[in-house]
Structures are given as C-alpha cells and as structure tokens.
Automatic annotation (TrEMBL):
The chain crosses the membrane at residues 6-31. Keywords: Membrane, Transmembrane, Transmembrane helix. This is Saccharopine dehydrogenase-like C-terminal domain-containing protein.
C-alpha cells in the first residue's frame, strides 16, 4: 500500500507535496516528520557481524595463488547507530587527528584502516560503549 502511494503521488508535484507534508498518513505510520523520541534512541542499539577469510601466516600469502586457510568471525556492538554511535565515532576520530597527528601517515589519500591503524581508536571506542569481539577464529581445510 505504501509503495502504491509513493509510486502514484511521487511522480507529480502536488503528490510530492502531500507525501512530504503528511508522511505519517501515506506511510501508514512508518515515517514521520519528527525524529525518534529520547526513549527510542536510548533503547536502540546495533550489532554487526563480519566474516573474514585470510592466511594464518604472511609466508603462506606470499606463495602465490593459494586459497585462504583461516576464517575469523567478529562482532561490533554499540548504542543506537544513527545518533549516538555516529557521534562517538566521529568525535574520537577527530580527537585522534588533533592529538595524535604524529602517528598518522603523511600526505596522500588512505583508507581508514591505514590512517587509524597505528592509533588507539579501538580502545577509545571501547571506552565509549562500542565493543569489538572475536567470536571465532578457525582453520579452513583446502
């Protein structure tokens, strides 16, 4: 039903105005103009699982066309992701850029892992309610 409303009304100017003016009605209560209440934010959290494949030893990886022999499963958990966790992460990254500039690579464009790898970002995030856990680390038979 929501898709029908959006599909029919979203293509014309007046329909777009209606959708933006009365989102609660046309989304059957799923969307509203106001953000979440403080109680909703406080009760929310996130949990992300990562599965990685790699090598148990660097010497194995350098041997050429060999399949990974390790699997690791990790979990990252924290408070509500949109308002709380995003703020925590951005503030801690900014503090590192300000206070630990000597630990950061000089010049160029780098991915976050390279930039923040030699810093204490993980410890800072853990101190502020975002946890990083290794769930399992197993050998994969070839």
């Amino acid at each position: 039903m929501v898709g029908v409303f959006i599909g029919l009304l979203g293509g014309v100017g007046f329909g777009k105005w209606l959708l933006l003016k009365f989102p609660l009605i046309f989304s059957l209560g799923f969307f509203r103009k106001k953000g979440p209440t403080e109680e909703e934010v406080e009760s929310a959290s996130f949990k992300i699982w990562f599965v990685g494949h790699g090598f148990s030893d660097e010497s194995i990886a350098s041997q050429g066309n060999i399949k990974p022999n390790m699997e690791i499963i990790t979990r990252v958990m924290g408070p509500e992701g949109g308002y709380q966790a995003t703020s925590i992460i951005l503030i801690q990254c900014a503090l590192i850029v300000l206070c630990q500039r000597n630990n950061l690579p000089k010049g160029g464009v780098y991915p976050p892992g390279i930039i923040f790898g030699p810093t204490d970002l993980q410890q800072r995030l853990q101190q502020n309610g975002i946890s990083f856990d290794i769930i399992s680390k197993t050998n994969i038979s070839s």
